Every structure is written in C-alpha cells, then in structure tokens.
C-alpha cells in the first residue's frame, strides 16, 4: 500500500470532470501500547501508520521494554531510514504524556486503560489533535437456551481464562439462559478446575501468571467485592505458591454465580484477570440488556443455533468486535479492532487504523475547454 496509495473514483455531476478521493498521511503518529501483546499491538498500530506515509514515535509499556526494543531493531535491520520509526522508553506520566502534548505529534494512537484513554482524549481535544483510543471492556459470552453446550463451555473457558484473562477482549461475564444454566455451570466449573497453570513457555500450560503485583491486587480486590456483593462462589481462586509457582504472580480461576444488578461493581468493571461471573437470565432480551448494562462496549460472543437470535444480539448489543459460536477472543488483523462507549472513540486499530492516520482529500480534474460548475452554479462573470 505504501507504493500504491489507494483511494476512490467518484462520479462527478459534470461529465467533463473526473473526481477522486485520495488519502494523505497526517504526519507524525505517536503509538502508545500496553504490555499484554508487546509485539502484536505495536505492529497493528505502527504498520498502518508507516504504510500510509507517516513517521512513528513508539512508546511501549514500561513492563515490556525488551520486546519493544527488539522489534524496533528489526525495523532498522530491514532498512528503514533513520527517523522514520523511533522508540521512546519510559513511564506513561513522563514519556507518554510528553508525546500527547508535543506540538510535533499529529496523531496519538493508544491502547490501554479507560482512565488514561479518556485523559488522552481530553488533552488531544484541547490541542485540536486527533487521537484513536482503545480502552478495554467488560465483555461477555452470551449462552442462549438452544446453545451447543460443548461449544458453549469451550468458548467460555477460552474467553475467560486464556492469557489469564489479561486481554481487553477477555470475558469476565458469562450470561446464560436459566433453562441450561445449571448444566452449563457444572461443566464450566469442572473444566476450570482442570486448567493447567504454570510457566507460559511450557507447551502444556493453559494459564500463565498475572503481569505484576498490581495485577494480583486488582484480582484479589474484585474477588473480595464479589463476596461482599453476595455472589455464590463456585471456585475460590486465590494465590498459587507451590513449587515454581512461588516465583511468579500465579493465581487460580475465581468463578461465581450472581444475579445481575445495575449497581454491582464486579459485574460492570473490568477485572483483567481470571475472575468470572455466571449470570442467569430468563430471555434473549434480558441477556442483551445485561450485556449492555456496563460502561463498556468492546467484545461479545453469542452461542446459539438460531440465526434469528444471533441477528437480534448483533443488532441490539453495543460492541465493536462480535462472534457467533466462538470465544470473545481471537481477533484477526485484517478486521477492525475497537469498541464503543468507554471502550473506544470509534476509531479502531488493526486494518481500520488507515482511516485514523490519513486525511481524505477531494481532487477534481476538468477535461473540458471551459469551466462548468456543480450544483447548477453559473460561471458568468458579467
């Protein structure tokens, strides 16, 4: 795409004119990325920016600087000219904030927490600077009464516990029709008990550690809040300290059953850990209501054999990334990735980032020997 910029040819009102919509780079793009995908997320923000002719300043998470530095070394080894892609290491309040406020930065692309994303939106607005932000979610798998339970349990386990729940699209909520909830819950809890937790570099490990002590404390806080809010605890979770697990931030799945409450902290706020609520509902409409009753709107999966039901969910749930008979994780890079409400500002990353890092320019060419105006405007001077 960098060698073959693309646009659109649009029919003009005037037969003697050709009209085009072209893309032009916005300039310097600051890419501020999180720790949980220290190579993938930088690539799906950096590459679209570069391919459209921008230069990039990359600020990775302070928790994963080695991955980021090696990634930039690969760009250098590939022959990218000096200054086209740059890396700045540091904490968000220092390096990240400096990029947000730097007059030479034209666009800020951010993936991370809701609080930081909203701050970036506010600061960019003050400077009339464009930003594209993705800020996590309180995602859910919706299991309807006609669901294939083999698919439902498998999808829910992957959504809740893959990467230890540390994806912005991980599901902390499993919304299940009450008709099948007891059987689903029994099978889900049995499967969760069997999850292999350990060193993420071992092939037989399903769930590795949390990122740091702060992540552990957030997990424990959400677990305690669930108990305080009256949850029926099905798996107690907790810290794991046996054998080699003592050397990392390892925790066990915390699973509970709880009726939906609009004033609940644990059913509305992102836990970013293996902390999962099973929420019984009595109808398709209630399932959609429960899904939407959070500040977020990022990822959703629905398990059903009825196309009418998944179409209803698709059309009435507020989300940016949706799936049918699949987990809520597993985004593909050629599709838009982002959310609505507190999950983003409608400018998703991955393939859709092209729209955020370019200007659309109208360009019209006259092939006649006289001037003719659109909208029936006269060209007479006197």
What is the ordering of alpha helices and beta strands?
EEEHEHEHEHEEHEHHEEEHEEHEEEEE
Number of H/I helices:
9
- Counting structural domains, the number is 2
Rg calc:
24 Å
Structural class: alpha/beta
Mean pLDDT: 95
Strand content: 15-25%
Structure write-up:
The structure is a single chain. This protein is an alpha/beta fold and 382 residues long. It folds into 2 domains: 8-136 and 335-362, Aldehyde Dehydrogenase, Chain A, domain 1 (3-Layer(aba) Sandwich); 139-324, Aldehyde Dehydrogenase, Chain A, domain 2 (3-Layer(aba) Sandwich). 29% of the residues lie in helices and 25% in strands. It contains 9 helices and 19 strands. The chain has helices at 40-51, 65-77, 92-101, 114-126, 149-161, 181-193, 213-228, 284-292, 307-316; strands spanning 8-10, 17-25, 28-32, 55-59, 85-87, 107-111, 130-134, 139-143, 171-177, 232-239, 251-257, 275-281, 296-297, 299-303, 321-324, 336-337, 340-341, 349-350, 358-366. It has a 7-stranded mixed beta sheet with strand order 10-11-12-9-8-14-15, sandwiched between helices. A 5-stranded parallel beta sheet has the order 5-4-3-6-7, with helices on both faces. α5 packs across α6 (181-193). The longest helix has 16 residues, at 213-228. It starts with 7 loop residues before the first strand and ends in a 16-residue tail after the last strand.
């Amino acid at each position: 795409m960098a060698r073959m910029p693309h646009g659109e040819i649009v029919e003009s009102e005037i037969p003697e004119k050709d009209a085009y919509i072209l893309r032009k780079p916005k300039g310097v793009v600051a890419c501020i990325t999180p720790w949980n995908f220290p190579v993938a997320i930088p690539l799906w923000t950096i590459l679209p920016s570069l391919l459209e002719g921008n230069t990039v300043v990359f600020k990775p998470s302070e928790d994963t600087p080695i991955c980021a530095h090696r990634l930039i070394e690969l760009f250098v080894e590939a022959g990218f000219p000096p200054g086209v892609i740059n890396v700045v290491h540091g904490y968000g309040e220092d390096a990240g904030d400096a990029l947000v406020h730097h007059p030479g930065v034209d666009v800020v692309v951010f993936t991370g927490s809701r609080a930081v994303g909203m701050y970036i939106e506010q600061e960019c607005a003050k400077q009339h600077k464009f930003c594209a932000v993705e800020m996590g979610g309180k995602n859910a798998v919706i299991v309807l009464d006609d669901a294939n339970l083999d698919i439902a349990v498998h999808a829910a386990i992957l959504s809740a516990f893959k990467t230890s729940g540390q994806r912005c699209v991980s599901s902390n909520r499993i919304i299940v029709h009450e008709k099948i909830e007891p059987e689903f819950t029994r099978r889900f809890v049995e499967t969760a008990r069997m999850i292999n937790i350990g060193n993420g570099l071992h092939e037989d490990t399903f769930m590795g550690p949390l990122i740091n002590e702060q992540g552990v404390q957030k997990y424990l806080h959400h677990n305690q809040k669930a108990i305080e809010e009256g949850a029926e605890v099905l798996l107690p979770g907790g810290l794991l300290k046996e054998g080699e697990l003592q050397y990392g931030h390892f925790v066990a799945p915390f699973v509970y059953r709880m009726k939906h409450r609009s004033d609940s902290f644990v059913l509305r706020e992102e836990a970013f850990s293996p902390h999962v609520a099973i929420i019984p509902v009595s109808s398709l409409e209630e399932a959609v209501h429960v899904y939407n009753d959070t500040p977020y709107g990022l990822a959703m999966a629905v398990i059903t054999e009825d196309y009418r039901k998944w179409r209803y969910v698709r059309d009435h749930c507020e989300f940016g990334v949706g799936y049918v008979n699949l987990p809520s994780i597993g985004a593909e890079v050629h599709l838009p990735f982002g959310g609505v409400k507190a999950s983003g500002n409608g400018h998703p990353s991955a393939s859709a980032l092209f729209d955020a890092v370019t200007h659309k320019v109208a360009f019209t060419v006259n092939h006649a020997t006289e001037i003719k105006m659109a909208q029936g405007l006269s060209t007479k001077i006197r």
